[in-house]
Amino acid sequence: MNSTLEAQETTFIEPFSVDYDLVEGAMKNPTNHLVRRASDMRGHYRDAAALQQLIDTGNPVHYEVYERPVPEQYGHLMFCISDLRPGTVGEECFMTKGHYHTRLNTGEIYLALRGRGYMMMKTNDGKCRYEEFAPGRMVYVPPYWGHRSINTGSEPLISFCVYPGDAGHNYGDIEREGFPRRVFLRNGKIHVE
Ligand code: PAN
Ligand code: ZN
User: Fold this and answer.
1) Distance CA 57, CA 63 (A)
2) Residues of 90-129 as b/e, b for ≥16 C-beta within 10 angstroms?
3) CB count, 10 Å around CB of 180?
4) Residue 70: how many CA atoms within 13 Å on its side-chain side?
5) Any residues with CB less than 8 A from the CB of 7 and at least 6 apart, and which?
6) How far is residue 51's CA from residue 23's CA, in Å, rounded to a whole number?
7) How large is the average pLDDT for residues 54-59?
8) Pick from 178, 192, 162: which is nearest to 70 by CA?
9) Residue 80 in 3-state DSSP?
10) How many CB atoms sit inside 10 A of residue 52's CB?
11) How far is the CA of 100 from the centre of ligand 2 (A)?
12) Which residues contact 179 (CB under 8 A, 6 or more apart)?
């Protein structure tokens, strides 16, 4: 049984449940498990030489994302749990690549479960804002805002997110534009510059 609303297809599926390990930030039986290492982050940090050194000395994991995908359609809700490791590239805090949603007018909810950090957000006309991540805090990423998570703490930053099934991910524009602000750890203090 499929229903059509605003001429967009929404596939009927059976209800299901998912179990999480909220301390490890893992989904027990993920269908998709994405692992991004230092070598996947080329072009994103200011200090390319420091990133190369990290790649050459073990190429550590930056973050992992666990998903149980649903149809990528209007009406469905995609969700995932992610584990962004602590660390720096030079002095810049570990972060996700960041993206716009392909359908720009789709938002996202992030619930912080463990660790400390920021959600850095930007629009394609140059606005930039950030919100702090801390356990028990929800960050709302409104439609039109590109977003990137940044770990400013010493333990993994674990978050759970939910977004429209038909949102899609646009990495290319963020790679070209970058974010106007970066987050650094210097002498034990966090600086947003
Ligand atoms: C999240 C992100 C996840 C990884 O599920 O995809 O945190 O970040 P990157 O996609 O930037 O590598 C999300 O925002 N989905 O829309
Ligand atoms: Zn997103």
Assistant:
1) 17
2) ebbbbbbbbbbbeebebbbebbbbbbbbbbbbbeeeeeee
3) 11
4) 23
5) none
6) 28
7) 98
8) 162
9) strand
10) 14
11) 7
12) 98, 120, 122, 128, 146, 148
Over residues 57-106, the pLDDT tens digits come to: 999 999 999 999 999 999 999 999 999 999 999 999 999 999 999 999 99
Pocket test for ligand 1, best of 99, 151, 163, 175 (most atoms within 8 A of CB): 99
The domain locations on the chain are 19-187
pTM, to two decimals: 0.94
- Specify the ligand 1 atom closest to the Cα of 167: 16
Residues with beta carbon < 5 A to ion ligand 2?
108
- Cβ(145)–Cβ(71) below 8 Å: no
CATH number of 19-187: 2.60.120.10
The answer to whether the CB of 74 falls within 8 A of the CB of 103 is no
